[in-house]
TrEMBL record:
<protein>
    <recommendedName>
        <fullName>RING-type E3 ubiquitin transferase</fullName>
        <ecNumber>2.3.2.27</ecNumber>
    </recommendedName>
</protein>
<dbReference type="InterPro" id="IPR017868">
    <property type="entry name" value="Filamin/ABP280_repeat-like"/>
</dbReference>
<keyword id="KW-0175">Coiled coil</keyword>
<dbReference type="InterPro" id="IPR017907">
    <property type="entry name" value="Znf_RING_CS"/>
</dbReference>
<dbReference type="InterPro" id="IPR014756">
    <property type="entry name" value="Ig_E-set"/>
</dbReference>
<feature type="coiled-coil region">
    <location>
        <begin position="253"/>
        <end position="280"/>
    </location>
</feature>
<dbReference type="InterPro" id="IPR013083">
    <property type="entry name" value="Znf_RING/FYVE/PHD"/>
</dbReference>
<dbReference type="GO" id="GO:0005654">
    <property type="term" value="C:nucleoplasm"/>
</dbReference>
<comment type="similarity">
    <text>Belongs to the TRIM/RBCC family.</text>
</comment>
<feature type="repeat" description="Filamin">
    <location>
        <begin position="403"/>
        <end position="506"/>
    </location>
</feature>
<feature type="domain" description="RING-type">
    <location>
        <begin position="35"/>
        <end position="102"/>
    </location>
</feature>
<dbReference type="InterPro" id="IPR027370">
    <property type="entry name" value="Znf-RING_euk"/>
</dbReference>
<dbReference type="InterPro" id="IPR001841">
    <property type="entry name" value="Znf_RING"/>
</dbReference>
<dbReference type="InterPro" id="IPR013783">
    <property type="entry name" value="Ig-like_fold"/>
</dbReference>
<dbReference type="Pfam" id="PF13445">
    <property type="entry name" value="zf-RING_UBOX"/>
</dbReference>
<dbReference type="InterPro" id="IPR001298">
    <property type="entry name" value="Filamin/ABP280_rpt"/>
</dbReference>
<dbReference type="GO" id="GO:0007399">
    <property type="term" value="P:nervous system development"/>
</dbReference>
Length: 591
């Protein structure tokens, strides 16, 4: 006989989903007796195709995920299909998402009622009701305390209802057990009954339909099917289930658990590493912020030192200029008053001391022109935020205070274009401005003046172009048009750099021959009468050039452009060719 544990709480417990005497704040001991949707004890628990159990009402309230229609073949449980055409009718299949695993599951056409009942969940529910110390109410009258339970009707009975249950003909054969005995063993053992024939136990198994049936089902609906006792087929079907579990699923389960443990361990390691790295980042940020703050204070202190230094320098320069102003103004006023108001004898008598004073003031080098005075107005002080500033407390920092000023005596000239040049060709050199320490300035903006003048021809000046490279260097370019010696003045802030003025030697441009080095124009031109030659030779017969043995021929090879008899030579200039005989020919000249 196939038996199952089977139990139900009373109606009040099913309605409230809690055990007798339990309050809302109490926690159930066994979570397998609680539905994960409504959070109460199971009420008619049904198994979804994903093997998760929920109350039938909870499944019916799930939102449909998809709805599809298909032809339903109306085949009764006996296995015979209806012969009427109306047997084929469209059926609607509703797909829902499992609240536990989020899988898509199809509900049978009849709804949650067509799902299999989870008897194990019912066992857990009734076990919870048995563990409580509170009294169970009678499910029939609802007044007296229940002391017994009918295994067939699955109801709790008080003493009066229990006697009436045994006296009635329909329920006289039902098995009734005391609740105290059920509490002692912790379970209720009863046969699994047929849903179509209440009171009939499922003792047979229909192999074509692959489901357990009772004797009446086997005699009526399954009379043409092969039905065997459940004890004869339980081993085969049980072994198949155990094989799927032990051979296929259990090893996979172990591998999944091992992989999950590795993932969890990796997550813990990752979390620990992230926290450690975050602590390192925070420590670095605190240290770096402290270093930046210290560097900021250092920059401000350096700026204050520069301010005091430059202020003192300006004060001293102002005092010197004020004294020079007073000295020169006093000398000028005294001299003007002497010349305008004094007599001849008075002027001559004070001439000596006046000239000595004026000469002294002149020799001191006081220049009233503003270009010669360059007060430090702080324009040389600048902040360079991206310039590396070394390390502070072990952290690299950037940003420096640039306070370099140009020292004219330390400036230098680079490039060969300052000493030598060529007539008509571009020459260039570079001026590098440096500070008092000899380091090149990292900025431009200095007032640079370059003048190139011929030493012999004062009116021969060369235009110059000065380009500020914004890095302390200045590119100077020029193009001399005449050869000779030039004087190059290079001034920064109206002061000559070291070595200025420089001497520039411009060479004469090499004049290449434009003609042919030939024996005579008659031979080189193939006898052309229009061919000319730079030598003084002539030919009769209307030829305009020279010829062998004729008058004026040099008697050796020469250039047709200028008549020079030296092959490796410069071509004679046009000014020389112009100073010729009336026929515009030079005499033979050896260069």
């Amino acid at each position: 006989m196939v038996t199952r544990k089977y139990f139900f709480p009373n109606k009040t417990q099913l309605q409230h989903g809690k055990r007798p005497g339990e309050t809302e704040s109490d926690v159930l001991v066994n979570p397998r007796a609680v539905c994960k949707v409504c959070k109460r004890l199971y009420r008619d628990p049904k198994i979804l195709p994903c093997l998760h159990t929920f109350c039938s009402d909870c499944i019916a309230q799930l939102e449909p995920f998809a709805v599809s229609s298909r032809i339903h073949r109306n085949v009764p449980e006996g296995g015979k299909r209806d012969e009427a055409p109306e047997a084929d009718r469209p059926a609607v299949t509703i797909t829902v998402l499992c609240p536990d695993c989020d899988s898509e599951v199809n509900l049978p056409p009849s709804g949650p009622v067509g799902l299999s009942t989870d008897h194990l969940a019912l066992d857990e529910v009734f076990a919870e009701t048995l563990e409580t110390d509170g009294p169970l109410g009678c499910d029939l009258c609802g007044e007296g305390g229940a002391g017994s339970r009918c295994e067939v009707c699955s109801v709790n009975l008080c003493e009066f209802c229990c006697q009436a249950h045994r006296r009635q003909k329909r329920t006289a054969s039902h098995s009734i057990q005391a609740l105290e005995e059920l509490k002692a063993c912790g379970r209720l053992v009863r046969p699994v009954l047929c849903t179509l024939h209440p009171g009939q136990e499922l003792r047979l198994f229909c192999q074509p339909c692959d489901l357990p049936v009772c004797l009446e089902c086997a005699a009526t609906l399954h009379r043409d099917h092969r039905c065997c006792p459940t004890r004869d087929v339980i081993d085969r079907h049980g072994d198949r289930i155990r094989e799927l579990v032990n051979v296929h699923l259990r090893p996979r389960l172990e591998r999944l658990e091992e992989s999950l443990q590795k993932v969890e361990a990796s997550q813990e390691t990752l979390q620990a590493r992230v926290e450690a790295t975050a602590n390192e980042v925070r420590a670095f940020a605190r240290g770096y912020a402290s270093a930046v703050e210290a560097h900021c204070l250092s920059l401000l202190q350096r700026l204050e030192e520069l301010r005091v230094q430059r202020r003192n320098h300006l004060h001293l320069q102002g005092v010197q200029l004020q004294q020079a102003l007073l000295d020169i103004r006093g000398g000028v006023e005294f001299t003007e008053r002497l010349l305008s108001c004094g007599s001849d004898a008075e002027i001559l008598s004070a001439k000596g001391v006046t000239l000595r004073r004026l000469t002294s003031l002149t020799e001191r080098g006081y220049d009233p022109h503003p270009a010669t005075i360059a007060p430090d107005d702080g324009s040389s002080i600048s902040f360079m935020p991206r310039e590396p500033a070394g390390e502070v407390e072990g952290y690299p920092v950037v940003g420096v205070i640039n306070s370099k000023t140009v020292d004219v005596s330390r400036c230098s000239i680079e490039g060969e274009g300052l000493q030598e040049g060529t007539e008509g060709q571009l020459g260039h050199f570079t001026l590098v401005c440096r500070d008092s320490a000899g380091e090149q300035l990292a900025r431009g903006g200095e007032h640079v003046l370059v003048s190139v003048v011929h030493t012999e021809k004062k009116n021969c000046k060369v235009e110059t172009a000065v380009t500020d490279n914004s890095d302390g260097s200045y590119s100077v370019s020029y193009t001399p048009q005449e050869p000779g010696a030039y004087s190059v003045w290079v001034c920064v802030k109206a002061q000559h750099v070291k070595g200025s003025p420089f001497v520039l030697n411009v060479k004469r441009k090499f004049r290449r021959h434009r003609g042919t080095f030939h024996c005579c124009s008659f031979c080189s031109s193939g006898g052309a009468k229009e061919a000319r030659c730079g030598c003084p030779g002539t030919m009769p017969g209307g030829f305009k050039g020279c010829g062998h043995g004729h008058k004026g021929h040099p008697g050796k090879p020469h250039w047709s452009c200028c008549g020079s008899t030296t092959e490796q030579s410069e071509c004679l200039p046009q000014s020389v060719l112009a100073a010729v005989s009336p026929r515009s020919h030079l005499r033979t000249v050896e260069l």
